[in-house]
Amino acid sequence: MKRAGQRVVVGTEAPQTSQTSKKQKTGFYGSVLGEPALCSSMDWGSLPHHVILRVFQFLTLVDRARASSVCRRWNEVFHIPDLWRRFEFELSQPATSYLKSTHPDLIQQIIKRHADHLQYVSFKVDSSTESAEAACDILSQLVNCSIKTLGLISTAKPSFMNVSKAHFASALTVVFVNSKSLSSIKIDDTPVDDPSLKVLVANNSDTLKLLKMSSCPHVSPAGILCVADQCHGLKELALNYYILSDELLLALSSEKHVDLEHLRIDVVSENPGQAEFHTIKKQSWDAFVKHSPKVNIVMYFFLYEDEFDVFFREETPVTHLYFGRAVSKAMLGRIGMNCPRLIELVVCANGLQPLDDELIQIAERCKNLTAMGLGECEVTCRGFIEFVKMCGGRLTQLSIMEEVLIPDSDYSLDRLHLEVSKHLGRMWFPDMMPTW
């Protein structure tokens, strides 16, 4: 391969003039003064396969397809299996979505020639039922696949939930039956059901490590146990709180079940006041943590303030807490009292009452806390510095918006960042809001 700027010379080279010298220096990229690039000096068709392959990997799918028509050699590279190990099908309706949809002809070419090369596959669909059904049709054709990672991503609801359960389950089981090497599956907000999970387990029990299926109303605790009982390599599980129960935690704590490293629980309320949340007993949590002492229990809350009543009234071994909606001072106080394993806390909003006491209590009792984020909340500079002082250098992530902090007689915002930096052992500034 010639370097950019080198010329291919046939026969005797003419003496170099100052003009040819200048062109040779500018090389392939051309001159900043507008002189023509020496594209003719490069024989792109003879580049090594691995170089063309590397270039193709940086191209969008459309550009890659266009490049494949340049010459036979580039078309050969276009069909090299390594280029099709990772692929995202984008499916959308032009009238309702900004997404660019993968061309149907290209989809059929991929299914015909590269289905057995696909290993890391995702489907990104818009909110239309038609796009979700198109994804199911593609899944149904992957009979020669050996997929390792599968993700079904809806950019907006409802999408997959509007597809008939029979159609979706039939399409999904085609992949479950034929792959036999699935290790990571993300099928949130889909009509997957217990029989589908049994098919998954029957064909991929030795390889499955991660299963995310939050907001899947047709999955029961029995379906979860079927997976956990037979997939002994399972490390990460994500599900909705409505599936979680004392019985499920106790069953997961049995020696015959897998040792989870991450359990993610989504606590979601779509309509305020219409959902009643049950309580998980402390004994059930204790049994689960005793069985898997290093497990991370991650909880995402999307509730309204009056729906938190049943949570954290007893000690709960949660390690990561994310509040996507406003949470009360009383709730944060309970977290400080009853979440001793807490590692990370993110609060989207609280209101207009300073959280000094709550943060100090969290710093006192949550000895493992290393990450904190506060959004639309308030805390005095004095209280915030006291919190940071108590946590010390173990706070590896600290994200606080500047408008959260209330200056007081002891600390201005200018002095605050110096004090906080001193206790953290590194330079720190509060986050700034964009100016648009």
Automatic annotation (TrEMBL):
Keywords: Biological rhythms, Cytoplasm, Leucine-rich repeat, Nucleus, Repeat, Ubl conjugation pathway
Pathway where it operates: Protein modification; protein ubiquitination
Protein localization: Cytoplasm; Nucleus
Keyword Repeat: yes
SUPFAM superfamilies the UniProt entry points to: F-box domain, RNI-like
Record-level GO BP terms: regulation of circadian rhythm; rhythmic process
InterPro entries (UniProt xref): F-box-like_dom_sf, F-box_dom, LRR_dom_sf
Gene Ontology cellular component terms for the protein in this record: mitochondrion; nucleus
Region called Disordered, residue ranges: 1-22
Domain called F-box: residue spans: 41-87
Domain of life: Eukaryota
Protein known as: FXL21 protein
Provenance organism: Sakesphorus luctuosus
Lineage, uppermost ranks: Eukaryota, Metazoa, Chordata, Craniata, Vertebrata
Gene name of the record: Fbxl21
